[in-house]
Amino acid sequence: MPIPCEVVGSIPRPLKLQRAFAAYEAGQITFEQLEPEINAACENTIRRMEDAGQLVVTDGEQGISSFATYPIFDTLNGTGLAENLSEDGSGQYFAMYVSWLDWRMDIIDTDSPFCSGNVNRPNILRTNLTLVYQQKNGAHCAVIIVPTDNYPFADGHERRLPRLVSGPFRFKTFAADYMARGLHLAQNLVKQAVVAPSMLSLLYPLKSEIPGYTREQFLADLCDQCETDIRKCFQAGAVRVSMDFTEGRLALRNDVRNPWTNERLLDFFLELNNRVINRFTAVERVHIGVHTCPGGDWDSTHSLDVPYELLLKEMFKLVSLIDLEFKTLLTSRNAGYFLIQCASEKDRNKVFKLVGKHIRRDANGVKQMAFIGVTSTIDPRVETPEEIAQMLVAATKYIPTDQLGATDDCGFSPFCDDKKPKHGSSPDFARDVAFQKIAARVKGARIASERLGF
C-alpha cells in the first residue's frame, strides 16, 4: 500500500477573515455578517486542499478561535465564553510568546495590504526587550522585538486559558458543529482535529479546589465531554479524528514563570487522555489519532528546545490502562495512529529510531500507524518532493513501511489571529505556502512509495 498522507488540521485564515473576526470581537459587525466570510474561507480551503492531492481534508479550522479553545469561547478575546468560566486574567498560561509592537501607519508602507488603520496585537505584556530592528518584506516593514529572557514560546507572546470557577464543566460548542459547515462542500473524505482532555484540564485551578466541585468531578465531566466531542465527529461524517496533544512536550519545560510546567503533569496528561481513548473499540481506535508537536503559533514554538527524547522517554514509560505488557509512547496510548512532528527536529533519525522501537503491530487489536512530519509549518521555504521522499525512505530503516505515513509538523495556524511573521506577516501568502507544502508532501510520499516498491 502506498505511504498514506494526512493533514493535522489548521490552515492560515485569510487576512480578510482575520479582519472580520476582529470586527466581530469589537462589536462592529454581527455574527450574521461574519459567517459569510467563514463559509467562503472554508470552501476555499477545502477546494485548495483537494487540488493539492490530499485525499482526506479538513476545513482548515477557519471558523474556530483555536484548536484549544473552540469548546469554550467563540473568539480569542473571550466572546461567547462558556458557563462557569471566568476571563479574569488568573487562569493558567498555556504558553508565552514574544510580542510584536502594535502595527502603525507610520511604520508600514501605505501600499501594504495591512494598512487599513492601526492593527493592534493583544497580549503585549513583555517589557525586558533588548533588540529592535526592521525587517522589510515586499511592500511593508514591521518592527520585531527580541527578548533577552528565554520564554516558553521562542518569540514570547502569551496564550492564557480562562479559569473554571464552578461546576459542572460543559462544552459550549463541539468540533462537529464547526465541521458541519464544510462537510457538504468536500468532494473527498473529511477528518477533524479535537482538543485533548489534558489541555482542558488546565482550566481547573492548579493548587486549589473549587467549592462544591471537586477535581475528580471535573475530570469525570471533562472526559465525558471529550468522548462526546469525538463521537459527534464520527456521527457527523468524519472518517478520522485526531487529538491535539501539543502540551505534552511543554509539560517538560519546568519554567517557573509558567507554574503548571513545574508540576510533572506528563504522566497525568497521558493517563487522562487514555481515559477517553480507551472508551472506544479497536475498530473505532483505528481512526483515532494523536498529534504531538512543540507548538507553531505565530511561526514560533513553545518547547522545541526540550529534547524530544525526554518527552518520548517519559511517554514510553507510562503503563497503559488496559495493557500492562509495554511501557512505550504508543503502548501508553491505544490510539490507532500518531501524527509526530519531525521535519524541524535537528536529529530526525533519533525520532525514527524511537518510533520504530516502540510502535506496535497489535495495540489491543489495532495496528498502529506513525505519520511522520515531513514539512515544517513555521518555515516559509517549501520542501521539495525529493527531500520529502528521501526523508520517508530514511524513516523506513527504523519504522516498518506498512506502519509509516506522512504529515506536516503541526497545524499551519493553530490560532485564528496568526499573522505568520516568518511569512512576511502575510497570512494570505502563508496560505499559499501551506497548500504548496501539502502538494509537495503528497508528491514526495508518492515518490517514496514507488522507490519502496508500493
How would you portray this structure in words?
InterPro entries: UROD/MetE-like_sf. With about 450 residues, this protein is of the alpha/beta class. The chain folds into two domains: about 15-90 and about 165-450, TIM Barrel, CATH 3.20.20.210; about 100-150, no CATH class. The protein is about 35% helix and about 15% strand. It has helices spanning about 15-25, 30-50, 175-185, 195-200, 215-235, 245-250, 265-275, 280-285, 310-315, 330, 350-360, 385-395, 425-450; strands at about 55, 85, 95, 130-135, 140-145, 155-160, 165, 190-195, 240-245, 290, 335-340, 370-375, 405-410.
Provide a quick synopsis of the model.
The protein has 454 residues and is α/β, with parallel strands linked by helices. The chain contains 13 helices and 13 strands.
Q: What structural class do the secondary elements suggest?
A: alpha/beta
Helix tally equals 13
Q: What is the CA–CA distance across the termini?
A: 6 Å
| CATH architecture label of the largest domain | Alpha-Beta Barrel
Proportion of beta-strand residues: 5-15%
Low-confidence segments: 97-153, 316-332
> How would you write the strand order of the largest sheet?
1-8-9-10-11-12-13
Protein name: Cobalamin-independent methionine synthase MetE C-terminal/archaeal domain-containing protein
Q: What's the arrangement of secondary structure elements?
A:
Elements: H1 15-25, H2 31-51, E1 56-57, E2 85-86, E3 93-97, E4 129-137, E5 140-147, E6 156-160, E7 163-164, H3 175-183, E8 189-195, H4 197-200, H5 215-236, E9 240-244, H6 247-250, H7 266-277, H8 282-285, E10 288-292, H9 308-317, H10 329-332, E11 337-340, H11 348-358, E12 369-375, H12 385-395, E13 404-408, H13 427-451
Parallel strand pairs: 1-8, 8-9, 9-10, 10-11, 11-12, 12-13
Antiparallel strand pairs: 2-7, 3-6, 4-5
